[in-house]
Amino acid sequence: MSLDFLLPLKNEVLETIAVYPEHSLAHKVQIHSEESGLPSLENVSLAILGVEEGRGAVNNDTTGYGLDSVREYFYKLYPGNWSANIVDLGNVSGGNEITDTYFVLKEVVASLVKKNIIPIIVGGGQDLTYANYRAYDSLEQLVNLVSVDSKFDLGSMEDFLNSNSYLSKIVMEEPANLFNFSNIGYQTFFNSQEEIDLLQSLSFDTYRLGEAKNLEIVEPIMRDADIVSIDIGCVRKSEAPGNENATPNGFYGDDICAISRYAGISDKVTSFGIYEFNNRFDDHGHTAHLIAQMIWYFIEGYSFRAKDYPFCTKENYIKYIVPQNDEEMKFYKSHKSGRWWLEIHTLTDNKYKRHALIPCTYQDYLDAIDQIVPERWYKALRKLG
């Protein structure tokens, strides 16, 4: 699909960042401008994409605007030792109807992913995650979605698609391309017990904020993700006030940057989105500055990808076999990164083959030795069955 729907950065923004230091990101990223047009996508690895759409953001009016403030902070930063080529494609403007915006975002993301370019979406409502997910329809593969959010956003099938109900649309509507959903950082008092029970009955993975504070558990979750969606409202208000739904509890700024880095370092993540930023409430630009750093950490993680997912060959791995009753559990440890995977039974259905190895931890291996079957193994088997 053509990218003609994308708006270039405003000249005022370009003039502001033009005077940033020579070695800052302002002079390292190819930017969509009126004068130069869209940057070439040849040999590009990552593309920043704003979405000026807030009509689906419940109780967070005007989100999706003021995205230039994020860019102004981002382009002040200095790159790490990165070899990846990065472009800024500008913004998707809000369509006449919100469905128009969804359509354009879906087509743009699909076009980028097919080119092996990872879109970094900075948007309005988290309902845009639905459009991001639908971009994978044309790829004909099952995907894993990870949401970092204090709420599940299930709503009900009767609700219109919005930031509080997008997940139910993803789970229930055809074509059904979702293999697994994981939530990181939910707060129990924001979610009904019925919703918690429903996600557990679907063998989805949910991690309370207190659990997710142990960031070691986040890495294997992100390692198995295709799509990562972050509601900036998952960060406590004192750290990120730029959200009308911000609350006192949540992740700290350094927590969410570490989570973003884990998303970047995952070999499987092919799209990354940060949503619900509302410039109208952003005291002294704290939230815009934090989002800029989250993007920086995602790119930093991407630059350290080990590309050691044992999908085609297992020659560079140590294989551990743990007897379990009448069967064996097979673990693989990467020589390159020291990360662990657990193999699920050989599958005959091709659409499940990319899920036959699930990320795990060393502790999962130790538990298996003690005849404690990892919960992630049970859940994967239930989905594959």
Written description of the protein model:
With 385 residues, the chain is α/β, with parallel strands linked by helices. Helices cover 30% and strands 20% of the residues. The chain has 12 helices and 14 strands. The chain has helices spanning 11-18, 68-74, 98-114, 128-134, 166-172, 193-201, 209-212, 218-223, 253-265, 286-303, 362-369, 375-384, and strands at 6-7, 30-31, 46-52, 86-93, 118-122, 143-148, 178-186, 205-208, 227-231, 271-275, 317-324, 327-334, 340-343, 357-360. Strands 1, 2, 3, 4, 5, 6, 7, 8, 9 and 10 form a 10-stranded mixed β-sheet that branches. A hairpin with a 2-residue loop joins strand 11 and strand 12. 45% of the residues are buried.
Write the layout of secondary structure elements.
Layout: E1 6-7, H1 11-18, E2 30-31, E3 46-52, H2 68-74, E4 86-93, H3 98-114, E5 118-122, H4 128-134, E6 143-148, H5 166-172, E7 178-186, H6 193-201, E8 205-208, H7 209-212, H8 218-223, E9 227-231, H9 253-265, E10 271-275, H10 286-303, E11 317-324, E12 327-334, E13 340-343, E14 357-360, H11 362-369, H12 375-384
Parallel strand pairs: 2-4, 3-4, 3-5, 5-10, 6-7, 6-9, 7-8, 9-10
Antiparallel strand pairs: 1-4, 11-12, 12-13, 13-14
